[in-house]
Amino acid sequence: MSPVPSNLPPGVLFITPEVYPLLKTGGLGDVSAALPAALRELKVDARLLIPGYPQVLDGLKHKRKIAEFAAQPPFPASLLLSARLPLRASASVPVFIIDCPSLYRREGNPYVNAAGHNWPDNALRFGLLSKIGAILASDASPLPWRPQVVHCNDWQSGLVPAYLNFHPGEKAASLMAIHNLAFQGIFPADTVAQLGLPAASFHINGAEYYGGMSFLKAGLYYSDHIATVSPTYAREIQEESLGFGMQGLLSARSKHISGIVNGIDTIEWDPSTDPNLSRNYSANKLAAKAANKQALQQLLGLAVDPRIPLFGAVSRLTYQKGYDLLLEVAAQLTGLPAQLAVLGSGEVKLEQALTALARNHPGKIAIHIGFDEKLSHLIEAGADSFLMPSRFEPCGLNQMYSQRYGTPPLVHATGGLVDTVVDCTPATLADGSASGFLFFDMTADSFLGAIQRVTVAYNNKPVWRRLMKNGMAKDFSWRSSADAYRRIYLSLRS
Ligand code: ADP
Ligand code: GLC
Questions:
Q1: Can you tell me whether residue 205 is helix, strand or coil?
Q2: Residue 475 to residue 47: CA distance in whole angstroms
Q3: Taking the domains of the chain in order of start, what are their residue ranges?
Q4: Rounded distance, CA 139 to CA 172, Å?
Q5: Pairing relation of β-strands 186-187 and 212-214?
Q6: Which of 55, 104, 162, 174 could cross-link 23 (Cys pair, CB 3.0–4.6 Å)?
Q7: What is the pLDDT of residues 224-238, one digit of tens each?
Q8: 345-382: per-residue pLDDT in tens?
């Protein structure tokens, strides 16, 4: 570990494969921008490391070359650039960019090609991210700045703790953050040797995973500490149903796992200033929210009707997110006085089924296939209630955005959704905590029952107003969760 005296603020290298607003495919992009900014406000010297995709190189101004890494087969030569993240939110965050054109300068999604298949050289692409992360976090670094803790996110940086473990010199402590255990970075066994890890790491106590190797498993095994993005998910991943094969290792490391709920960027997501809305509003000026509903109905070709409950949804369309359940209840949903507006992209089958559904119910159901940041904000503001039937959800951000936007969410009781949404019952209405609706079984009946509860509550104006205001009053800022990470960093470096 680093010899830096413990009275200095911790330096943290936050390694991520995506960051808002440069490149975002999901919640990790949002977290990678907002958490380091919140940490810097707590005097943690957090800096990012990210691959130099075209969107990153084009989006960052005033880049400086600060180091060169010679080719080290199979890794090609690369440059390290330095810049600052252009956020209109809080503190600007220093960013290190790995410029390696043959691995990263390609258009499109950072993980998959246009056909939706993993880039064939992903082991090398994220092996290099991990390798350079480990170099920068050790006495082999060419930089004068050295972190005391390296904060790895998901499988793409999972090999950092492994490289550090086998580095003989001084090195940072490592924290492995799990945003989604379903993505494990699995590759053939010989990848271990190809990426320069010692044969000893190909072991059940190491990177080996059912005969192949897993970047994530390596990170979970070799890291000093593990974090995940909500307390409920921290428990769920230690059990078979949501452990995705890692539950044995995770329960063995139980004492070193923290569940820290994500926060949100309360400046980017503020209905009183959000430039993506048709009209801004706040808890004290709720009437203006209606203009967003009207704008959304018009934009998506829904019947313009202020009274009909409008359900919104914004999501990656994958098995995780439970859209098959939404399709299952579609027939009953269309029988209700209700509308549905969905923005999403992902699995072709789900895209096609949702598109067909909208085509068969014009004016009532609207689907926009694609990734559209602006529309996602308008849906949060314009919908009456936000749907998240996720089969599992490590944390989820949209349910927090929707509460802040006065759009009570309807969510499956799993993972971070349990930790951030309070089900509307007579008791929670009475104590002022009710902020949304939970359904407890992943079945059409249970989901439909909750949809009906929403429509009943929606028609009871005082109850609905209370729900909206309760959600809007909640503190979803990063402050206390960033402080929880800060305390873990301090404990790791001492
Ligand atoms: P996950 O990371 O599993 O996708 P989260 O709820 O944590 O789920 O975060 C998803 C983030 O990505 C949110 O900010 C959401 O608004 C955004 N998002 C997802 N799909 C789209 C889309 N099609 N267009 C715009 N934003 C999207
Ligand atoms: C993942 C999870 C999501 C979480 C996000 C950020 O993509 O699916 O639940 O909110 O990461 O941590």
A1: coil
A2: 25
A3: 11-263+478-492, 286-472
A4: 9
A5: antiparallel
A6: 55
A7: 999 999 999 999 999
A8: 999 999 999 999 999 999 999 999 999 999 999 999 99
416: three-class secondary structure by DSSP? helix
Would you tell me which CATH number, out of the four given (3.90.550.60, 2.130.10.10, 3.40.50.2000, 3.40.50.720), belongs to the domain 286-472?
3.40.50.2000
- CA-CA distance, 189 to 207, in Å (whole number)? 9
Partnered with residue 186 across adjacent β-strands are 214
Q: Treating both helix axes as pointing N-terminal to C-terminal, what angle do 27-41 and 479-493 enclose, rounded to 10 degrees?
A: 70
150 touches 13 (CB < 8 A): yes
417 ligand 2 Cβ < 6 A:
no
Which residues lie closer than 8 Å to 245 by C-beta, 6 or more apart? 184, 209, 210
The stretches in the chain having pLDDT less than 70 are 1-8, 87-91, 494
- Please indicate whether the domains covering 11-263+478-492 and 286-472 agree at the CATH topology level: yes
CA of 289 to the centre of ligand 1 (A): 22
Tracing tokens 């190797």 back to the chain, one arrives at: 213
Q: State the ligand closest to the CA atom of 227.
A: 2
Bridge pairing between strands 339-346 and 409-412? unpaired
Looking at residue 388, the DSSP 8-state letter turns out to be E
> Pocket of ligand 1, candidates 274, 314, 478: which has the most ligand atoms within 8 Å of its Cβ, to mutate?
314
Q: Determine how many CB atoms are found less than 10 A away from the CB of residue 491.
A: 12
Neighbours of 390 (CB within 10 A): 24
- For ligand 1, atom 12: residue with the closest CA: 26
Residues 6+ apart with CB under 8 A from 45: 9, 10, 11, 12, 147
pTM over 0.85: yes
CATH architecture of 11-263+478-492: 3-Layer(aba) Sandwich (3.40)
- Taking the centre of ligand 1 as the mean of its atom positions, its distance from the CA of residue 26, in whole angstroms, is 4
* Alpha-carbon gap, residue 297 to 135, rounded angstroms: 52
